Amino acid sequence: MPGDTFSATGPEMRFAGGIMTIDLAALKENYGALARVCAPAQTAGIAKADAYGLGIAQVVPALASAGCGKFFVALPDEGFAVRQAAPEADIYVLNGLFSAESAAGYPEARLIPVLNSQAEIQIWESFCGASGTRHPCAINVDTGMNRLGLTASEALTFADENSLTRALEPIMVMSHLACADDLKHPMNRLQLESFQQVVAAFGDIEASLVNSAGVLLGADFRFDLTRPGVAIYGGSPLPGVKNPMRTVVTAEARISQIRYARAGETVSYGATTTLGRDTIIAVAAAGYADGYHRAASATGVPLRALDIAAGHGIVAGRNLPILGRVTMDLTMFDVTDLGVGGVNRGEFIELFGPNIPIDVAAKAAGTISYELLTSLGRRFHRRYVGLES
Ligand SMILES: *Cc1c(COP(=O)(O)O)cnc(C)c1O
Description:
Elements: E1 5-9, E2 18-23, H1 24-38, E3 42-43, E4 45-46, H2 48-52, H3 56-65, E5 70-73, H4 76-85, E6 90-93, H5 105-108, E7 111-115, H6 118-131, E8 136-142, E9 150-151, H7 152-165, E10 169-174, H8 186-202, E11 206-208, H9 212-215, E12 225-226, E13 249-261, E14 266-267, E15 273-274, E16 279-284, E17 312-315, E18 318-323, E19 331-334, E20 348-352, H10 358-364, H11 369-374, E21 381-385
Bound molecules: pyridoxal-5'-phosphate (PLP).
């Protein structure tokens, strides 16, 4: 990986089984590219789950320096961390208000709750009434997920009533698409139409509908504010097409041992893989406790569709298949094709990064880039590069 280390977290490199390199320049470029596509709509940054596992403390200042002034998180604690990293930003908390006791914590950190139900609206109304201040809030409308949010008709009623009572001061109304990553899906247009009605009833406040994939549905869908997450972090916004985003994360595992095994021997727990040839095995110091999912195992873990290939690593441009099961702390790779001395103890094998797209590594584990990113463990040495220039 090019670039000097800008900062590092986790164990020191010499003590770490794996290294994660997070390219903040690529992150900023991805944000900038999305912001240009979305303009004149504004582009927020989604920083939930510790910025998709990459670190709020490093990612949020980088996005802020690229012009991102609005962030969404799932939980208040994540909001507090974003507030530390971006003192000026608007921060929306998607999961809303869990209880009346939590309400006072939001204005203290200038967090804006996204109110998802009548119950949450009531909590915020009582809190604002008692404190004599109409603290800002956002309203979430469920137009087809059946996840969180007022129904469209509840939202229309609320907009009418609140325009009379002015009990609350909503500054944004939002919804979320269920099928944005399938551009032709009929749900997209139905949700758009339902949301347009709600937006009209709310009058002159910000409206926000789309995530990364939804940005590509066209200008109608972008309203005032877009909410891309995974695309900023280098994941493909759409499955099955060439990923236009730059790679942000590289994960590499240290090779702890090279071993020579004979045809007919077996590898790893359950002895589910029998070697068909004399094999050189690289034992790499990362496993499922690091977020390298067990479902990426070669055989014997029926957790992904059988027609999807198991995971692989890369050294020197060569694809190196996983042998047997991924274990908690270690994974075995077949390095026979590199020849004796082709790779040595102490070198690193790429798990995903510039040569293995994160979406490919995720698919090999029967999952998606989002889950791979957010399950990356705390044992990696994490180095942040790309901000030195
Ligand atoms: C996570 C999330 C996003 C971002 O989604 P991506 O697919 O990562 O772009 C946007 N909006 C809401 C409500 C979300 O929960």
